[in-house]
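seq/struct pair 1
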Amino acid sequence: MTAATPVKDMSFEQALKELEGIVRALESGSSELERAIADYTRGTELKEHCLKKLADARLKVEKISLDATGAAKLEPFDTQTA
């Protein structure tokens, strides 16, 4: 992915891969200040995008359980008891 790709159009995997590259570049300390600031800003956007994608996925998770008759049914995933 290039930096020109809008974050909102990226898949989780694409955003995470670019974020990992930005982290490596920032950790190396080899970027000029302006580039490091731009990378940090982009990295923040990518991180928020990834967190949103994960939250959306979590809401979609359902668990299979059995009712009183033994028939399978889907229920929302309860994070409090998981």
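seq/struct pair 2
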Amino acid sequence: MLHHRSRTSPVFRLCFTILLSALSATAAAEPSFRLNALTDDIGWLTLRGESRARYESLDNQFRANRSGSDQLLLFRTLLHAQARADNWSLGLELQDSRTYLGDSGTPLSSSIANPLDILQLYVKYDDAPGLLGPDSSTQLTLGRQTVSIGSKRQIERVDFANVIKSYTGLHVVSTAARGDELHLVYVVPTARFPNRRPALDDNELSGDEEQWGRHIWAVHYRRADILPAFASDLWGEVFVYGLEEEDTSSFQTPDRSYVAPGFRLYRAPKMEQWDVDLEASWRTGSRYATSQRTDTENLETDAQMVFAALGYTFPIAWSPRFAFEYYYASGDDDPADNRFDQHERLFGSRRSDINNTSINGPLTPANLNAPGFRIEVKPGPRTDARFYYHAAHLASATDAWVIAGLRDTTGQSGDFIGHQLDGRVRHWLIKDSLRLELGGSALIPGEFPKNVPGGNDEVTLFGYTQLTFSF
């Protein structure tokens, strides 16, 4: 086994946490700062940004054939400028994401490190004819952009990840007076560079590029208050997402051809009220088993995902909300049946529903069967906290634990990944400007990681300290 130890002691971790807290405390009495205040006299220009620092530590690596500890220091800075003339806007957002303290065993990728590049560069028109009746209006965004819709389980602008994904193409949003939304999307994802080591370790500059051989399309309709006689403020959504891929000279794909219809029912948490979140989608189509040029055999796909949550917010101190949750994402039952029925996570979120990610993140909505619960509290207007637990199983014992890279095609290692616990606390030191966040996770291994070849039977612990300055 590869034995990987972090390069600094626990004393460094503690000192770094104290340093961030001390810096935060000295700033707590200061007024909030907004970059846009510098352009008050320029009515057509708006500026905003964010700078974030996070230190992470992971003990007892859960990934295949690894053990020991890991750490990472991450920085992300965003700067967004938008020039406006009548109903037209021109936007530019820069992203600079860098990492330090990692070593050869750190699971670095282009989702963690992406030095200075263009995250968004778009033209927007705000007054196109509405598509939802006479009281509706439409906004069109063309160019490189970030996309988030509804629950963000299908496509999102990530938050916790050190690198935000972007797409290039057209996003049309038509909004009715009552709040209904119709989203029409046709984009290609942006490939982030560098994407290999040692360039990732060295934070080398390398321009991102559009993946012109990969096409994402979507029709997503959200309707407000669909059953007022049954439950007020209940949203209904129907959608269909598609992905078409083909190889190009610079990028190999599994040639996925997917169509995924689905629906969602959602009622937001509110004091003394039951809330609900039910989302399901079915994915059909085909793909190759790998991205290799020699792989030309189509595998039929039939994959599903379901997320369900039922919660209640109690009218007592700290406004606690308790919710039962369940996440299911299908796995591939038979590795030899010329099918690929695993529900892959493509462009949607996983951190909000499942676990803290980055160098951690053992769970993802692929081959997952995970019942659990969540507790959220709000001690004051500047502070919130949450804790959630999942009993994580493989949906198919013969398919892979995807993030860990572990698989027993015989199914004899069992299907119980383990008990996953996650939590965080956030506090605005300067309201809407400077926020401190502390979080942690624990994975208590079940039968599968203990029995599968290359697995780890030790408890994995993850913790982070994060400071975010919004300006």
